[in-house]
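A.,

Following up on our hallway conversation. Structure tokens first:
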């Protein structure tokens, strides 16, 4: 188990039943980066990975 799994499990347990838009998630990610600028690169990588999940041309992500 990775350390981040605990946070992911907490997210799922606390908010797993909620329905939110990707616009809402994007805004929360922006807020997080504003408050935690050291995490800009990992958040950008996560957002890019999520955005390209269905792109068959981007297999090297």
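Then the amino acids I'd put at each of the 61 positions:
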């Amino acid at each position: 188990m990775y350390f981040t799994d605990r946070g992911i499990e907490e997210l799922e347990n606390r908010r797993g039943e909620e329905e939110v838009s990707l616009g809402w998630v994007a805004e929360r990610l922006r807020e997080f980066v504003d408050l935690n600028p050291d995490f800009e690169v990992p958040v950008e990588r996560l957002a890019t990975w999520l955005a390209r999940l269905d792109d068959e041309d981007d297999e090297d992500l």
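The mean pLDDT is 90. Curious whether your intuition agrees with the design.

B.
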